[in-house]
Amino acid sequence: MIAHLVETSPVETEKAANDGGVVGAVLDGRDTQEAILAGMNPQTPSSPGDGAAPRDSQGNHWNAAYAIASGNLLADMRFNVTGESQGRLQDARLYQLTQDSGVRDMFSFLLARDTIHQNQWLAAVEDLKADGLEDTLVPSNFPQEREMSEIAYRFMNFSEGEDSAQARWVSGPSMDGKGEFEYVSEPQAMGPQMEVLDPPVEPRLYSTPKQPMQPSYS
Amino acid sequence: MIAHLVETSPVETEKAANDGGVVGAVLDGRDTQEAILAGMNPQTPSSPGDGAAPRDSQGNHWNAAYAIASGNLLADMRFNVTGESQGRLQDARLYQLTQDSGVRDMFSFLLARDTIHQNQWLAAVEDLKADGLEDTLVPSNFPQEREMSEIAYRFMNFSEGEDSAQARWVSGPSMDGKGEFEYVSEPQAMGPQMEVLDPPVEPRLYSTPKQPMQPSYS
Amino acid sequence: MIAHLVETSPVETEKAANDGGVVGAVLDGRDTQEAILAGMNPQTPSSPGDGAAPRDSQGNHWNAAYAIASGNLLADMRFNVTGESQGRLQDARLYQLTQDSGVRDMFSFLLARDTIHQNQWLAAVEDLKADGLEDTLVPSNFPQEREMSEIAYRFMNFSEGEDSAQARWVSGPSMDGKGEFEYVSEPQAMGPQMEVLDPPVEPRLYSTPKQPMQPSYS
Amino acid sequence: MIAHLVETSPVETEKAANDGGVVGAVLDGRDTQEAILAGMNPQTPSSPGDGAAPRDSQGNHWNAAYAIASGNLLADMRFNVTGESQGRLQDARLYQLTQDSGVRDMFSFLLARDTIHQNQWLAAVEDLKADGLEDTLVPSNFPQEREMSEIAYRFMNFSEGEDSAQARWVSGPSMDGKGEFEYVSEPQAMGPQMEVLDPPVEPRLYSTPKQPMQPSYS
Amino acid sequence: MIAHLVETSPVETEKAANDGGVVGAVLDGRDTQEAILAGMNPQTPSSPGDGAAPRDSQGNHWNAAYAIASGNLLADMRFNVTGESQGRLQDARLYQLTQDSGVRDMFSFLLARDTIHQNQWLAAVEDLKADGLEDTLVPSNFPQEREMSEIAYRFMNFSEGEDSAQARWVSGPSMDGKGEFEYVSEPQAMGPQMEVLDPPVEPRLYSTPKQPMQPSYS
Amino acid sequence: MIAHLVETSPVETEKAANDGGVVGAVLDGRDTQEAILAGMNPQTPSSPGDGAAPRDSQGNHWNAAYAIASGNLLADMRFNVTGESQGRLQDARLYQLTQDSGVRDMFSFLLARDTIHQNQWLAAVEDLKADGLEDTLVPSNFPQEREMSEIAYRFMNFSEGEDSAQARWVSGPSMDGKGEFEYVSEPQAMGPQMEVLDPPVEPRLYSTPKQPMQPSYS
Predict the structure, then answer these.
(1) Which of B180, C12, D148, E78 meets the CB 3.0–4.6 Å disulfide criterion with C112?
(2) What is the pLDDT of residues C23-74, one digit of tens each?
(3) E strands of chain B, at which residues?
């Protein structure tokens, strides 16, 4: 039972906080309830001491799994365009989540920065192409005859119905200018018929066999 | 001391494996050394029982932190273009890391699939624009006058030297057609002078103060 | 100081939200305070744009570390029984955490689905045994004489007192029908006396030695 | 270019290691190549100083996301049965991955311990039922009439073909003794027809709309 | 739209909870709003069933990445001093975040325990030195002539201005008694001029080249 | 069966690599086996394209959970001392793991940098004390009478035997100069006897009860 946690009634807590609790001090005399209603992260005053911590709003620590530098500049700059796109979208949504003019001023600045950032990376992508260093596809200089070219522009319809047949991306010239989108209404399996769909189970791995088997020794 | 681990000489281990060790069985009679030289993940036979496991080649489990669906289709399809770009790049590199014709066949197929996937998402991006649903910037219908427009196309040079002044993304029309890139050689701080750079330390948070202070009660 | 965050009084915030803030819009005119009191995750409107995100209620991303497919069907189906058990338990608790009839309807459906799911996996476990593919123990066909059978049914009491001596799992036939539970009141160490409890420290690993030592070269 | 990394030829490295490198010292004079062939984790001598570290064989740190104590003993003991099942399976596989008699002795001990552990938790599960504290389903005392009982034993076939119709878990008495498995060959959608499949997009969230829309202010 | 979530008005919810909702039961008849205002984690009643779960207050699972045992006792005991320091700091801050006398009693106990813990590890550090097992530096017996001693006590000023020149840690005897801190106002690059700053790009890795290049075969 | 993976014999693979495989190219004509023997991470050529990636040697991504800035400088600088101590220890161990003179040169530099870093943070700790901003304990100005002072220097012996009685940290003056270490051979429980060790189970949480109970409604 955790009833003890609210033994002090909200009213008493409020009074006590106003009497000098640190939440009240940090929040100009306001009380714990108002802190919660203002959405204050309870770790802010405790863990980093009223400072910032490198976490998202759900407490997930920043991590470098998102730091991708492949060395192919077209791939990496497309990632930058994407990052700035998702970022400016969040700016716009957060702008709308508040009516506080100071916070809105900050987002007004951030929206403008993300405007130029999106524009810049898009310009850099065009620049790479203008210089002949990359083309539409990443990577641009993998020898085309080494890929299975007969399926490189083929849309295989695995949905019910034929709605997809109307889309821009199933007919007409491909965006890289090297092919023509092709629509296959009922795709067939391409590989050879597997002769051994169920290979015998290696008894010393103890996966469940198809038929009862004796213990195996080695 | 872990010398015990190699107490059995490599030669003996090889012989033993050929006598029936499970590595030998899985690998057609080859021995542990050959398994290591072939780059076999030692967890493959043990944990998933010679099956696949949802991890990358370094053992990091797949996780949904990468699954981003913002609802803004331009932002999300740009992410798809990016994903397919990074993916086809890895296909091409892995193709080159092996001479095995079977594995190369598989990558030949995957390269072709990523060719159409990149093309498709690029086509979808164009389609969104053609339909007037999105424009160059994400998001496209945030009211422009609510962002701090005077800096929305301004490049601020924080590098040493003026090399950046030559780039495509600091002059000429912006990619969204709504501005002109602008280059600022020596950017100045924009905000007002902060009057209180060092606010007094709240004594009940126990961060280190500027001056010695007495214990604080509440 | 973060007092600024609540500079706008709750009352003003409420009014503003009703005047058109996006929280108000999403929540039918209600205000931020009501959103917090309804337990709305603040990331819901911002990050996935009022959609769903693959996270738990504490913001932990779904990850594949939990996806276990060992290939031994008895082990894996026992995991399924467990998963459905924990799942139906949460359904029942969440049902009780709300009085909302719509949400309760959904849990009523989910409870019933988890009823058949638990039943099905339990049936599948019995089926595996009926077919002679697995027995009580996982794995069932590891050669019994290769395990240290003299301790395979022996309970070693490391608790204070002898309360454990009364339990079902320290006497009587074992569940696999192959042994008899055995109770050892005061277990003794089984291994040989280690002659070298404290091996000499390798000086070039720089762990702290037992006695002062000179720098070591190589 | 990382060619530098192998500038010293393997032969020279071996000699040098035998001349006193710490790998040689830890491994009784053997060299780096033999360490790699023996599968030694390179972090073992460096990070924990030839000690153990709480990681799996792929370097994933142990974490408490797996520690589940729900308070419902039937759910939790079923998890224990599962854990011991997966554990003994890994013991058996690792036993087969080596021919080293010392390591096999250790696994012989561990296999026996996991034999009694599986047996014990299975006994505890039976004990809970014998005492009337839990029944077959978790949780056992949720009021049955509050779940949507008409679907609680109904198998809905979403696979191609009717193979599932033969299974033990689609007909006959359910394992909890409270129902009869039921097979539905072609399940129909149960809910009412949603009138509004595509709710209008809230313009201030900037998700892509169905039709072009003007900027929205608030 | 998630307006449905607050369809039941707060007032009705409160009444319903008092009529017997489990939150009300756990919290002595109080309602959901009071639970939120008291900062109750909503997973507490559901996931661990009113028990404890090994997570931080933001839902991050405990993990063993923090468990560091290097084998060098000076390094490890310094970590213990650090851990107890951060711990007692959090105790003090959490003490101030509440006015509840029972919770304050608990922190009063924890603060005292952390007082002796900090003192103990500091004593142990001194003890290691008194016994001659470690000195000021970790590790203490790495041969000093093998490190690049000319820079071992040299402070290189990479900040604007010369404020750092006044600090205790740029002049005077070093803490290990083996050197004299040295201040370098304008540090120069130490290494040789790299002759090849831009090595040619390996074409089969498909990183973006400096100049357009043809597809490469192998 | 993954035997296919080694279908190409090691000898053939080597030859093929020398014929132009990308591993051979990156490694100056050497082959895959030599790459493995040199300990090359297989992701190096593929994922970051022969560049660096922010991961540890086991593939764990860097993450900000380790970034701790509490605002209490004594706590934070102690952490820095610890970090530099663990870091220099790893430098020394890695120095010993190789005989390559270029890599040793780099570690010779890093060891010297960590020498001054340890010295600097130790100097900074002393400086904080000299300025009267912090004392021995973190935090230094929490009011001492608010902690349970009677146990603040008391060592409670929970080990078998009395070996601990000889240690420096159980007698004599404490390191903060404010107390005397105290040794308690057989510590007694301090709190009052709990009257209700087993509170009744809330039936709507469905944890297993002590006695069979009926379904509960609300």
Answers:
(1) D148
(2) 666 656 666 666 666 666 767 778 888 788 898 888 888 888 888 899 999 9
(3) 154-156, 172-173, 180-184
Distance CA D214, CA D216 (A): 6
Identify all chain D residues contacting A206, using CB atoms and an 8 Å cutoff. 89, 92-93
Answer for the pair B28, F3: CB distance below 8 angstroms, yes or no.
yes
What's residue C20's pLDDT? 39
- Is A119 exposed, middle or buried, given 0-12, 13-18 or 19+ CB atoms closer than 10 A? buried
What sign results for the dihedral spanned by CA atoms E39, E44, E46, E50?
A: negative
**What is the DSSP secondary-structure string of F72-115?**
-HHHHHHHHHHHHHHHHHHHHHHHHH---HHHHHHHHHHHHHHH
Measured CA to CA, the distance from residue B141 to residue B147 in angstroms comes to: 12
Chains that touch C (3 or more CB pairs under 8 A): A, B, D, E, F
**8 Å CB contact between A137 and B118:** yes
Amino acid at F40: M
Taking the C-alpha atoms of residue E94 and residue A43, their distance in angstroms, rounded to an integer, is: 10
State the amino acid at position F35 in one-letter form.
Answer: A
**Cα dihedral value E68, E71, E74, E78, nearest 10:** 10
CA F162 from chain centre, in angstroms, equals 30
Dihedral sign for Cα atoms in the order C30, C32, C37, C38? positive
Query: Which residue from D minimizes the CA distance to E47?
Result: D70
Output the DSSP codes for E162-203.
Answer: SGGGGSGGGSSB-TTSS-B-EEESS----SPPPS-SSPPP-G
Write out pLDDT tens, residues B144-177: 999 999 999 999 999 989 999 999 999 999 999 9
Instruction: Give pLDDT, residue F24.
Output: 62
Residues 6 or more apart whose Cβ sits within 8 Å of residue A90: C46, C47
- To the nearest whole Å, the CA of E167 is away from the closest chain B CA by 16
| pLDDT greater at residue B211 or residue E27 | B211
The Cβ of residue C138 has, within 10 Å, a number of other Cβ atoms equal to: 27
Q: Give pairs for D95-103: CB < 8 Å, separation 24+.
A: D95/C142, D95/C146, D96/A204, D96/A205, D96/A218, D96/B21, D96/B22, D97/B21, D97/B22, D97/B23, D97/B42, D97/B45, D97/B46, D98/B21, D99/B8, D99/B13, D99/B16, D99/B17, D99/B19, D99/B21, D100/B7, D100/B8, D102/B4, D102/B7
- Other beta carbons within 10 angstroms of residue D118's beta carbon come to 25
Beta strands D172-173 and D180-184, pairing class:
antiparallel
The CA distance from B173 to B155, in Å, is 13
Chain D residue numbers touching C113 (CB-CB < 8 A)? 151-152
Give the tokens for residue A83.
Answer: 């990052």
- DSSP assignment of F162-208: SGGGGSGGGSSB-TTSS-B-EEESS----SPPPS-SSPPP-GGGTPP
Contact B38 F144 (CB under 8 A): no
Going by their DSSP bridges, the two strands E154-156 and E182-184 should be labelled as parallel
Angle between helices D73-97 and D101-130 (to 10 degrees): 160
Q: Report the alpha-carbon distance of residue B193 to residue C129 in Å, rounded.
A: 78
Amino acid symbol at E150: E
* Residues E33, D181: Cα–Cα separation, whole Å: 43
Which chain B residue is nearest to residue E217, measuring alpha carbons?
Answer: B96
Task: Supply the pTM of this predicted model.
Answer: 0.88
Pairing of strands A172-173, A180-184: antiparallel
Residues pairing with D184 in the sheet? D156
**ipTM of the complex as predicted:** 0.86
Rg (Cα) of chain B, in Å, rounded?
A: 30
Residues from chain B contacting residue C60 (CB–CB below 8 Å) = none
CB-nearest partner of F204 from C96, C206, C218: C96
Cis status, amide bond into E143, omega within 30 of 0: no
